[in-house]
Automatic annotation (TrEMBL), chain A:
Belongs to the binding-protein-dependent transport system permease family. The keyword Zinc does not apply. It comes from the Bacteria. The chain crosses the membrane at residues 9-30, 101-122, 134-155, 197-219, 255-281, 301-327. Keywords: Cell membrane, Membrane, Transmembrane, Transmembrane helix, Transport. It holds the Pfam family BPD_transp_1_N. Signal peptide: none annotated. This is Peptide/nickel transport system permease protein.
TrEMBL record, chain B:
It is found in: Cell membrane. The keyword Lyase does not apply. Residues 100-289 form the ABC transmembrane type-1 domain. It holds the Pfam family OppC_N. This is Peptide/nickel transport system permease protein. The chain crosses the membrane at residues 41-61, 102-127, 139-160, 227-246, 266-289. Belongs to the binding-protein-dependent transport system permease family. One of its GO terms (cellular component) is plasma membrane. InterPro entries: BP-dependent_transpt_permease, MetI-like, MetI-like_sf, OppC_N. It comes from Baia soyae. The keyword Protein biosynthesis does not apply.
Automatic annotation (TrEMBL), chain C:
It comes from the Bacteria. It comes from Baia soyae. Belongs to the bacterial solute-binding protein 5 family. The keyword ATP-binding does not apply. One of its GO terms (biological process) is peptide transport. GO terms for molecular function: peptide transmembrane transporter activity. This is Peptide/nickel transport system substrate-binding protein.
Amino acid sequence: MISYIIRRLIMLIPVLIGMSIITFSVVHAIPGDPARTIVGDKATPAQIQEIRENLGLDKPAYIQYFTYVKDILQGDLGTSLITKQEISKEIKPFLAATTELAVVAMLIAVFFGVNLGILSAWKQNSWFDYTAMLIALIGVSMPIFWLGLMEQWFFAQELDLLPSNGRLDPRMEFDAITNFYSIDAIIQGNWYAFQDVLLHLILPAVALGTIPMAIIARMTRSSMLEVMRSDYIRTARAKGLGEFWVIYKHTLKNAFIPVLTVVGLQLGLLLGGAVLTETIFSWPGVGRYIFDAINARNYPVIQSGILILATIFVLINLIVDLLYAWVDPRIQYGKGE
Amino acid sequence: MSAHIQPVPFTKPEPPISPEKEIVESPFRDFVRAFLRHRSAVIGSVIVLSFLLIAILAPFITSYEYTARSQALLQAPSVDHWFGTDEMGRDLFTRVIYGTRISLWVGLFAISGSIIVGSLLGLIAGFYGGWRDTMISRIFDILLAFPSILLAIAIVAMLGRSLSNALLAIAIINIPTFGRLMRSRVLSVKSEDYILAARAMGMKNRRILFHHILPNCWTPIMVQGTLGFATAVIEAAALGFLGLGAQPPEPEWGTMLADARQYIQLAPWTMIFPGVAVALTVLGFNLLGDGLRDIFDPRMKQ
Amino acid sequence: MNKRGLILSLSVTLLATSFLVACGGKDPNAGSGKSKTLIYGRGADSVGLDPSQQTDGESLKVTKQVLDTLVDYKDDSTEVVPGLAEKWEKSKDGLTWTFHLKQGVKFHDGTPFNAEAVVFNFERWMDKKNPYHKGDYPYYGYMFGGFKGDPGHVMKAVTAVDANTVKFELAKPQGPFLNNLAMSSFGIGSPEAIKKDPEGVKFNQSPVGTGPFKFVEWKKNDSITLAKNPDYYEKGLPKMDKVIFKSIPDNAARFTALKSGDIDMMDGLNPDDAKLVEADKKLQLKLRPGMNVGYLALNTTKKPFDKPEVRQAINLATNKKGIIESFFAGYAKPAINPMPDVVWGFNKETQDYEYNLEKAKSLLEKAGYPNGFDVEFYAMTEPRPYMPNGKKVAEFMQEDLKKIGINAKIVTYDWQTYKDRVGKGEHQMALYGWTGDNGDPDNFLYVLLDKDNTRTPDAGNVAFYKNDALHDTLIKAQQSTDQKARTDLYQKAQEIIKKDAPWVPLVHATVPEAARAEITGWIPHPTGSDKLLNVSIGK
């Protein structure tokens, strides 16, 4: 197992190198000049030239690349061209904001997805089943940014029931310690803040969690149907165990791996992919951070940001794979893939 | 994000199953019968065909032009304007109708592109193995590890904001999906007895590839392609929403949603209809894809 | 048997849902009632909070509250009033300025504000060799002709005469000198705080000044919190205990937040939403006077615009009212002069060209173009503050031009390319605009219309208009430091320009903004940053 982990980690290296090269080339091929963004519209060519020299942007691309790799190897993710802040520091709250959102979205997805799936299978071919599966189908087909907009329009604007943007009422006295606001609120024992954080999470998390929820519901349903047909259940039933709970338990076990796969995959994707949800709900997350950096030609932020996200993505995949083995010892890791 | 809604079974290599046997044994008529018996496949294909018809017949469905302005700004849906009008007095029904063309066009070309490039790479990797496999698989790993929407955004930023560049970006980010699928299929088909037999008889690589392996791989690719079509439509709308896809005055659904957003207070209908159009199109392709998979892959049948 | 299980599972689901919804009630303690907190909603986060390093409005909006300048602008115009300097005098030749500072003022970190502090700040900005000169200081270089050692650098020396007197010696007289000093970029920071930050990083994140509000916290891309400075030199001010600048990028989303009371005031209102604000009793509409001008530059070096009659004809064929109603939702003033009336020195006497197509046509005939001509019409596609939709404005003008026989073809490029091409003078006629920096007429008239600024590739005068009489007037005004004399000179300059018509001045865009009805004392300033001294909730 340990040798497997090590091998997987080693395999990560060429992927990261490849990514850094692609990111670097794409980013530097984007027309436009970060120097212009820094000094503004009214800068003279001389001013721009000076800044380019200060930033090392006048050097040939390959030298810039090697400088960048050298810095990364020394653990230096670089400095934002625009804010002059260290990226490793600056990115933390953004990462935390998106992670918190993604985790809550997944919790919603798993909770509702699994239960919907089980109940629909239990009541197979009933109106409940049809409704639930229709919802699930629509759920997978929904452009989430549109869903977000509609939520915002209906729940925040028309009903004024839930906050439409941000992570917390700015009037609240609150210290961001870990930058996971729900955890921070608990640490500070501030229950109003905790409640407010949850309220702010609902709309974006539901938008973000809809697709995984739909996928999970459909998977759980088919997995449950299989369980219900199996001999094992018949035996259990014969033994007189409470039927629903037997099936519930077994389905949960059976559904675990596919659900885990969805969660793992989506969690990794959501980190960088929540940019639309973040845009709509003014969520100060990492997707928006990198998106803004692309618009401002903020090279180091784009490069390091994408590198961080990719590393996290790959690590999550690794963890998911390891969890498989832990859950289902039949799965063995020896050969390549 | 929305980019990866493909059902999970395809993300892990599946044990070899032999859909070809189903087809070989049952002629085309059986496929049609199975298809017609499959509810979601039928509904899906009806939706898809309707949108196709709408796209083709757009000029005959509506009497307005999609760029034609009028004095009726931001009017609610009425008999004259079924979906209301936008901030420039343009008929929204017309714009949504014409938007169908753009979305189907993007879906078709982007997914065809990813299928061609992805399958080719997957085929080479799976069939030849060795260093080619290693290299191509690493490329797929790299592309998959990228946050796909951010990669698409960066590509569009590099090439310039336009519909065709958005299309290209969507094609690129979907390559590994098809590539990996193709590779795993090739690997499983390759070890089938009859291929081994053909090889033992001294059949040439190319002949094996084109006459035996490829025909047995294209079904899952087609199923995945249908589902990928749905994804591409959403991705195009997402890029349009961020202002990176189709440029005004093109009536692209995502772009329309972005424009409509500032009138969320005044005219919510400008936001509702383009979104419904996206969702319906995607739903159609998802249903069709699901149905096709069930038919071709009995193991998944419930 | 299994019914119970089903019910149980269902009720768990229901419970979870109802828990989430139950939280929906508004929490009483979070309300604004007790501590007086003001939330200002805006479209983007600040880049940094050291004003001398920033050029973006979102940064300066915040630093305006934290760092004071030596002199300041009046509440509603760019007229200069005392700031940290109580009074000042200048020598006859305009080369020496002496500022007498307010006494007893303290920085937020408790250190005293005095002449040394002022000198420290200016040395830091102007001297590239200064150990604390970390960064680009773009506005310093831009307003004072470069840095120490540069040939155009205006500032010869800044010295402390005594604890409360600072002397500026200039290399040459600079008319807009006072207006420059009033810019938020030249806010005076605490030398102690700057010295504690040799890397030049921390001060940009948590500035220390003498302003009405202290910096408290910055949550990136989310909010910046400031708290009242209890030792502020104007007693009883500011009226709020706390000000929070909250970023909500989308205009419509920000407006939703305003309506639901999540924020108290906002800028960047969609012009179309202004109607909704006016109809809503809980809200009030605020109009920010625009220190900008949107214009159509006629390239005087290219045919047919080398003829003044042709240029005048285009002026006569322009329906400014129509443009403003159609594309600014009425929120703009028709431009008569190249600068707006919020800038002092504006010539009220100037007669604008009337909208008269027949007269225009006859002028064209006089100039030798009885059948009109073909022309390329450059229009920008990206929204600018002075021109939210250039392409539509161009299409609108195209119609009128056609009526007098001019066949205009609209040409567009992305903004970067557009600026390059126009700066090189490749256009015949081009929509363009300018947002003022310091509220001095020089910042409009000299920059945009003097022959000195026709140098390519970065011309500011994109009409490439060269008039020696105008040049003499502008240079005289630039080097004079007598307000009265300068006013006269600039008024004369505006007359000359009007007659030669190198432009069609189109609009000064006004920016609609909104606040909750109970907000008082907010006066949107033409520079875009308002000191929130008198703003309060209720009375």
